[in-house]
Recover the amino acids of this structure.
């Protein structure tokens, strides 16, 4: 269950005036749900958000790598192209297989994946 707090002062103790109206200690009358700020339970933030954050980081890294690869193709730099494409393959593997793959977390696992590709 979520805890509600005042959007203005952050207080979570209210005085009920009517059925749909509460009064905060700061004097604000809270009548709509948008007047409140909800705190999500710790379990949800600990378990769900880190994976989403890591996936977002991987997606942005893939985008940056693709731009760098395009630049290398324009400049015809083969060595950098090979290095960036192998790194891109690893990032795509991480995104497909999941962030929790044990081979992806260790540096040795990353080297193994790059060597295979």
């Amino acid at each position: 269950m979520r805890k509600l707090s005042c959007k203005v002062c952050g207080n979570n103790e209210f005085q009920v005036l009517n059925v749909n109206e509460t009064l905060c200690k700061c004097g604000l009358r809270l009548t709509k749900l948008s007047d409140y700020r909800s705190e999500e339970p710790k379990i949800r933030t600990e378990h769900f958000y880190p994976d989403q954050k890591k996936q977002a980081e991987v997606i942005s890294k893939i985008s940056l790598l693709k731009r760098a690869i395009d630049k290398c193709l324009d400049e015809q730099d083969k060595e950098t192209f090979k290095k960036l494409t192998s790194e891109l393959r690893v990032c795509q593997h991480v995104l497909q297989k999941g962030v929790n793959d044990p081979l992806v977390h260790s540096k040795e696992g990353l080297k193994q994946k790059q060597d295979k590709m």
In short: Strands lie at 3-6, 14-18, 21-24, 29-30, 36-39.
